[in-house]
Q: What sequence folds into this?
């Protein structure tokens, strides 16, 4: 399957009064047409910064230190903001976490979706724009779009507002859709509806999706492949079955152990000990070593390369070196 996005050795830093923060460190991955790639990890690991870097939505204090971003065969790493404006919307779009911060409460939802349609289809008449808006509202599951065209965001529930934000993101039929934790503020039932809607839209439009989340349960429902991030780096990547049923990095084990399933019969959920390292002065070796009960001496001295598990599964851990001791993953113990 053809790649629509390739990120190669990407490093992104922020200049702050405390020094350089290395938010994304030497990240490489690809995204295939029609695929959903989930990026998971704890808050602050670099997931959102990575997505915003690709779309060139970073603040002035941030800069690409190294690497390249290739979209549909074109290297956009050094594109100007003017050049990026032609790509945003047409080539890629983003669904943000909080729909209320994405919608203007003083404007009707029909007007706001219409603005997104007009931005990329300036030759349409007013009636064609309104027809397109109602098509989008119907696509994302808003009933009676003709009647609700003139309603305001506060007339809709949280789940419906997220659907409206999706309609705006899909206004120009983008090739790549970034979904930055779009279900975090929703209850479980509405989460499931939004995830099913995303899958249906992807199937209908052929959109490729990068889904950002810290919720592994959500990821299991929607992803084709999963990339695990920690301290600005990718530490494991593979198909959803490989990550969930054969994880190889100790950090991935820890994320899995945090799921309620693995705490059955226990008094409390598992939590990863310690704190992520400062990215002003990242550790020399494996950044997870100080929280890893299976860390080897070399983990404190040298960053591990990616070791190949299968043609689609790679993990950056010295435990996969042929000289390393054999460790039984803790999530295998007593779990069938």
A:
């Amino acid at each position: 399957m053809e790649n629509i996005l390739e990120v190669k050795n990407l490093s992104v830093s922020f200049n702050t009064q405390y020094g350089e923060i290395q938010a994304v460190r030497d990240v490489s991955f690809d995204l295939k047409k029609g695929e959903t790639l989930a990026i998971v990890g704890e808050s602050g690991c670099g997931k959102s910064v990575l997505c915003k870097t690709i779309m060139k939505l970073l603040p002035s204090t941030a800069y690409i230190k190294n690497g390249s971003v290739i979209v549909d065969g074109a290297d956009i790493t050094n594109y100007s903001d003017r050049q990026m404006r032609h790509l945003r919307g047409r080539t890629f779009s983003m669904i943000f976490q909080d729909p209320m911060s994405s919608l203007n409460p003083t404007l009707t939802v029909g007007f706001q979706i219409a603005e997104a349609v007009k931005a990329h289809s300036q030759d349409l008449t007013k009636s064609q724009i309104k027809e397109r808006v109602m098509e989008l509202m119907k696509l994302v599951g808003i009933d009676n779009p003709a009647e609700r065209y003139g309603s305001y965001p506060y007339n809709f529930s949280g789940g419906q507002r997220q659907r409206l934000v999706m309609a705006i993101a899909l206004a120009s039929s983008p090739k790549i859709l970034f979904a930055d934790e779009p279900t975090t503020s929703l209850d479980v039932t509405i989460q499931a509806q939004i995830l099913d809607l995303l899958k249906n839209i992807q199937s209908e439009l052929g959109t490729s999706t990068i889904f950002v989340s810290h919720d592994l349960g959500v990821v299991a429902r929607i992803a084709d492949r999963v990339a695990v991030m920690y301290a600005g780096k990718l530490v494991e990547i593979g198909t959803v079955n490989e990550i969930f049923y054969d994880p190889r990095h100790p950090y991935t084990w820890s994320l899995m152990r945090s799921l309620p399933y693995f705490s059955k019969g226990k008094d409390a959920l598992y939590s990863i000990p310690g704190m992520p390292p400062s990215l002003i002065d990242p550790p020399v070796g494996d950044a997870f070593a100080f929280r890893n009960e299976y860390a080897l001496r070399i983990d404190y001295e040298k960053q591990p390369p990616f070791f190949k598990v299968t043609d689609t599964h790679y993990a950056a851990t010295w435990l996969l070196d042929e000289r390393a001791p054999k460790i039984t993953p803790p999530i295998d113990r007593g779990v069938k």
Residues 188-205 form the longest helix (18 residues). The chain has two domains: 3-91+176-332, 102-173. The chain is about 30% helix and 25% strand. The mean pLDDT is 91.
